[in-house]
Amino acid sequence: MRLKDKVSLITGAGSGIGQAVALRFASEGAIVVIADRNLEAAEKTQYLIEQTGGTGHAIAVDVTQEQQVVDAIATTIQQFGRLDVLHNNAGISILKPITETTEADWDLLFNINLKGVFFGCKHAIPPMVQQGGGVIINTASELAIVGQSLYTAYCATKGGVLAFTRALSVEWAAKGIRINAICPGPIQTPMLQAEFNLASNPTAEEVATIQSIPVGRLGAPDDIARVALFLASDDAVFVHGAAIVADGGRTTL
Ligand SMILES: NC(=O)c1ccc[n+]([C@@H]2O[C@H](COP(=O)([O-])OP(=O)(O)OC[C@H]3O[C@@H](n4cnc5c(N)ncnc54)[C@H](O)[C@@H]3O)[C@@H](O)[C@H]2O)c1
User: Fold this and answer.
1) Which of 55, 188, 204, 225 is most buried, judged by most C-beta within 10 A?
2) What is the value of pTM for the model shown?
3) Is 2 within the bounds of a domain?
4) For residues 215-244, b (16+ Cβ closer than 10 Å) or e, as one string?
């Protein structure tokens, strides 16, 4: 077990990538606090963890609300004694040409995708330093590295996550905090399904996206969870400020 008794807090763990990370961490012995603004979804993840004999604890958190993030970290430490791994994973996408993107769209994207990461890191680092170290993982995107039509504002948030992660890792490496980012390619989750309308009627551009992945398939949420597991584990002991791309080779083209 690579995360035996490690206390982890994962945001956006009620669905998709976050849920897969929660299940994989639990299967490796971690205690998992499942934080999501959708409590029912978080409780579903808790149920799935408990079905396999793991320990999960669902809490409602909106990562855009600083006090809720503070409370989530405090609850984790009160209940389980420490916080070893924080995965800032909650995120949304809004697909629009920039000329149709409203200020409200922009603010919502940045508040969830980037400010939520800032709040998580800001409030997890002090207890991690106090306990002698910790690991932070931030979910960015391949779209922090390459561009895609209609995703301009989303790309800006994820580019921000990468720059923030790199700078923060430098700031805290000497204090024993390892901070890294994951850049997933297209992963089959409810978010992507909503974007692509995969089940019913994908557009030609959507079909082209899938065909553009060298491995010839979309990613599975657990493909990303395995990367998160590596970063959370001691195997990544010398990995700081990295952006690990997991995209089936798409950004190499
Ligand atoms: N699916 C992909 O193709 C893909 C690719 C690259 C990056 N990502 C990133 O991966 C992360 C997870 O995406 P996913 O595809 O699993 O999406 P998803 O929609 O399946 O899951 C996202 C979860 O985040 C939660 N959430 C949203 N806003 C929140 C908030 N303010 N506070 C707390 N929880 C909130 C939702 O309730 C949901 O449970 C996101 O950051 C996304 O940008 C996804």
Assistant:
1) 225
2) 0.98
3) no
4) eeebbebbbbbebbbbbbbeebeeebbbbb
